[in-house]
Specification:
Elements lengths: L1 H34 L4 H10 L3 H12 L4 H12 L1 H12 L5 H7 L5 H12 L7 H25 L5 H6 L2 H17 L1 H17 L5 H23 L1
Length: 231
């Protein structure tokens, strides 16, 4: 038992940078969601059940635009499909972890926790057991939920103008993810630029929801060929 507690604490310590990064973004999400007319309960439900920052921000914007449920669900599925790939990748790395644990832990995989887990797995000294992974993933998850709760409550006492200005958090998050990737490969920047251009064009002919879905699918398809060529 003491060994498991030690490993959990080690995982929690590794998660500290994610905790610090997740909380303010989650606060922005909570403020925007509630001030957009989404109830506090449903705001928190998205953080508990969806747990995907980009998709949650996108959902808030799409709900504000009055898109249909089908558009919203399809866009979220397409945007979050990468989680299937990340989970499958970690399955190969964590073969020694019992399947019952992997089935639970895979729910908490995000872009950031996937990156941290993958880097830790590459270290010969790192022992990625279930207790360590629980510490890492659960602490990041609780940070996102608590930030969403704080933001939802904060939205009830701050002016709407301040709340709207917090939408910059969404753009900051995407830029933070994009720039390091572009520095590694110019093709990533090309894919992002083409996707943005396609979305702008599709907005002229399609509803906002389907414009996002179509641009994401086509941009992702382009990315398959470009990254394959690079490899």
């Amino acid at each position: 038992m003491a060994g498991r507690a030690h490993e959990f604490k080690r995982g929690a310590k590794t998660a500290l940078p994610l905790v610090v990064g997740y909380f303010p973004i989650a606060v922005s999400y909570g403020v925007l969601a509630v001030q957009s007319g989404i109830s506090l309960f449903h705001t928190l439900a998205m953080s508990v059940l969806v747990y995907a920052g980009a998709s949650q921000f996108m959902a808030v914007g799409m709900i504000g635009m009055g898109v249909s449920a089908l558009e919203l669900i399809t866009a979220t599925f397409v945007l979050n499909f990468r989680h299937f790939v990340m989970s499958l990748s970690l399955m190969n790395v964590l073969k020694h972890v019992p399947s019952r644990w992997k089935a639970v832990l895979s729910y908490w995989i995000t872009d950031e926790t996937f990156a941290v887990t993958s880097m830790e797995a590459e270290k010969q000294s790192a022992q990625l057991n279930a207790s360590y992974l629980c510490g890492l993933l659960v602490c990041a998850y609780l940070s996102w939920f608590s930030g969403s709760l704080f933001g939802g409550l904060l939205s009830m006492v701050i002016p709407s103008g301040i709340g709207e200005s917090m939408s910059i958090g969404l753009y900051a998050m995407f830029i933070g993810l994009l720039i390091p990737a572009v520095r590694t490969s110019w093709r990533v920047g090309l894919i992002a630029g083409v996707s943005a251009g396609l979305c702008s064009i599709f907005y002229l002919y399609l509803s906002s929801g389907w414009a996002i879905v179509s641009a994401t699918v086509l941009g992702g398809t382009l990315g398959i060929f470009l990254t394959k060529e690079e490899k």
